[in-house]
Amino acid sequence: MKWIRYKLIVQYDGTHFAGFQIQPHDRTVQGEIQKALKIMTKGIEVIIHGSGRTDSGVHAKGQVIHFDYPFIIPAKNMQRALNSLTTDEIFVKEVSIVEDDFHARYNTSGKKYQYRVDLNAIPDPFKRLYTLHHPYPLDMDKLRNALKDLEGEHDFSSFCASNSGREDKVRTVYEASVVKDDFNNELLFTFRGNGFLYNMVRIFVGTLLQIANGLRPADEIQRLLEVKDRNEAGPTAKPQGLYLMEVYYESSIAKKGTDYQEIGEVGEQVQHELDHTAK
């Protein structure tokens, strides 16, 4: 039987995971989903591929993965089965059956990240796993001007972890913005681009907050883009405030709404067992 390729949009709370990518001795998002798929296939290994990694403590509202599955199961049933077999920290938001040439990582055309900062003077224990606590005065005009300096195509070597290898550090940032949530007294940073380097968004935030605090000059982003030196930029902000919100693809690559109506004999048996398990 031909293996079928599935594309999933997945949400997860990254607090108690050692990141997305599978690791031999740690609990990961990829590991948990593959464990569920192995139960569904009665022992057949299914390897998932993500649009990219997220670090320990980083969250996702729109991570995209794909995998090839040995049986034909309608997309809605695949979603229901995985949500019944994975921990409540993971939720499969959407499932579709796609063409064999779709790849969650290599077909991406861009990503959107957000970062939450709690400005309250006293730390909120209910926010500690989902925001960066930063109870210091901020110059919002300086912050917004500095964000604009990040937009466009640049060599972002100063905003990339030093151990990220020799890859090309040129990326295009389409949006770098911030809004103030007065009700919750939080900042919400948004970054959209055609790609992001390792720790890039977290280094953005760490540097931007220093500019807004007056610890760095207003034109610091321009200087950092020129020097191309990670040691010159600000600290890497903590992971818990970071969220992968959306992954973008060309519309011609992944066919939305495609599904199989016919279920093969083996797939039908597996689906019957999954229905029974879910009850």
Please provide a brief summary of the model.
This protein has 279 residues and is of the alpha+beta class.
Going by CATH, the architecture of the largest domain would be 2-Layer Sandwich
CATH topology of the largest domain: Alpha-Beta Plaits
- Extract low-pLDDT stretches: 252-279
Radius of gyration: 21 Å
Query: Care to count the β-strands?
Result: 10
Overall, the morphology is globular
Largest beta-sheet characterization: 10 strands, mixed
Which class of secondary structure composition applies to the elements?
Answer: alpha+beta
Instruction: Give the number of helices.
Output: 6
Give the helix proportion (percent range): 10-25%
Termini separation (Å)? 28 Å
Give the averaged pLDDT, no decimals: 90
CATH fourth-tier homologous superfamily of the largest domain: Pseudouridine synthase I, catalytic domain, N-terminal subdomain
CATH uppermost class of the largest domain? Alpha Beta
How many structural domains in the coordinates?
A: 2
Residue share in β-strands: 25-35%
**Helix and strand string, N-terminal first?**
EHEEHEEEHEEEHHEH
